[in-house]
What we know:
- The chain is α+β, with helices and mostly antiparallel strands.
- The protein has helices at residues 19-34, 67-86, 135-139, 142-159, 183-189, 206-224, 240-246, 248-251, 267-280, 285-290, 304-310, 360-381, 404-409, 442-446, 465-476, 485-488; strands at 2-11, 43-51, 54-61, 90-103, 118-122, 125-134, 167-171, 193-195, 202-204, 230-232, 237-239, 258-259, 297-299, 315-316, 323-327, 331-333, 348-358, 386-390, 411-417, 431-438, 450-451, 457-464.
- It has two domains: 2-157, Alpha-Beta Plaits (2-Layer Sandwich); 165-246 and 303-488, Bira Bifunctional Protein, Domain 2 (BirA Bifunctional Protein, domain 2).
- 34% of the residues lie in helices and 26% in strands.
- The strands form five sheets. Strands 7, 10, 15, 16, 17, 18, 19, 20 and 22 form a nine-stranded mixed beta sheet that branches. A six-stranded antiparallel beta sheet has the order 2-3-1-4-6-5.
- α6 packs across α12 and α6 (206-224) crosses α15 (465-476).
- The radius of gyration is 30 Å and the shape is elongated.
- Zinc ion binds next to β22.
Amino acid sequence: MRFDLKGYFSLSDDASKFKDDIKEFVTNINEKVLKKDDAEKSACIDDFRVEKNKFYIHITSGRYYRAHNALLQIKNMLSKKLGKKHHVGVRDIKIEDYKIEFELEKKALDPISIPFAKVETKAKQAVIILQDVSEEFLRKNYIDRMITLVQEKVQNQYYEGKGEFWKLIWESKEKKPVWSKDPTEEMNKLEWLKQGPTKGKWFYRPQITAIFRAMEEIAINEVLKPLGFKEIIESHMVPFDIWLKTGHMEGMPGEFYYIAEPASRDVEKWQKFIDLTKITKEIPLDELMKNLSIPSAGICYAQCPVIYWSFKGKTISEKSLPVLIYDKTANSARYESGGRHGIERVDEFHRIEPIYIGTREQLLDLREKLLERYKHVFNNLLDLDWRMAWVTPWYMQQAGKTDEKESKDCGTIDFEAYMPYRGSRKKSEWLEFQNLSILGDKYIKAFNIKAQKSNLWSGCSGIGLERWTIVFLAQKGIDPKNWPKGFRKYLNELPDGIEFM
Ligand code: ATP
Ligand code: ZN
Ligand code: MG
């Protein structure tokens, strides 16, 4: 790795008068501060010149003591040196040209581009070229993140198009479905539900609502309560700073529903909007935009981020471990765009999300218990044709963790079910109806959550009510007569619907 930086310090006065002092300063720094036994740990002022009140400098360095960090340190030392003896201050730093060369794990397959810099790649070598860089830019650690971003983009070129990682863990016996119709279409015909009022949303009438509620009761009574989970209620409006911490903001910005607050609730500010609406009976969108703030939050994507936020900076007593809680009130919103289908891929859905915080041992033990309870529900109550798969590839597990054993504990299990209406059991795509993750200390660190003594891990499981329901109906049909006994204990008959003429 090689850093090659050319820039200058702006001084408060002409320093060309004391060139000799500066020369001595540079020699001294080179010998005593920048030079180390190992070239990768060293930096060096290769070149310098003083022109009036500009001190031009050329620094090169290896991997560990990076040229821009050396530059910041030199600035401090130079301030002291020139200030004390000559009463000259160092005003600011300007980097005219900064070249960073580093090795890639594999060669880039396509050109790479990132903000703020030009990137060139050749074989397994990458070069980032920056121009006109400010001191603030250096201090904010952007450069390190830009290097990481280039590495990540090259890595991604190898995984793109490879499909998702998927490894079967367990599968149920094959079960004979009672029909092979698309339940949403059938329920639509029967007026059990109605699409809309906007894209990917549904209005659920009494029959389907009763099924959702039965599923919810099953999840709570058969899985969560027996394991000691307690209910909490959270906000379903998530401010950006929470998503910045969890990584959602960089992960899926195109899937959020954004929330804009009014710029003011002052009626006078809204008067023109109100008058225009009264006269035109249309919504004056330009006028509306003037009265809205830029979004600073979004609708819940998954419930866990706000739950983690609620523990931010807290030290949890050993007595309270493992923390076992769940939310069932926050609706999730995702902009699914072209992927929408029926009630199984919607833009607004209803989930129960249990989350767990505890020691590694507690969570591994909990995972076994959760799996056992889930199996009980899907085998004995819903009688599903389903399977479990490990879907976290090793390179995603606990990024940066070198301990392989530790990283093997972390990851996600998807629960998938056969959807007869999609075609053959072997060839058709099965539907993920829930998942279960252990995420190590990723969010624990992000929100600075501590225990008295133990090291904490966390995880969550997303129980999608639309998905549980559609999977069940796709295999068992919509006539309660054909439903398994276990489920009928929770819902034996459907409420009367509303008749339309
Ligand atoms: P998919 O691969 O189907 O898009 P996902 O990986 O995006 O799912 P997660 O973020 O893991 O889903 O969410 C966990 C659970 O939330 C899913 O198992 C499912 O039950 C539910 N879920 C996610 N997206 C939707 C959706 N668009 N409509 C209904 N339920 C959903
Ligand atoms: Zn979660
Ligand atoms: Mg998705």
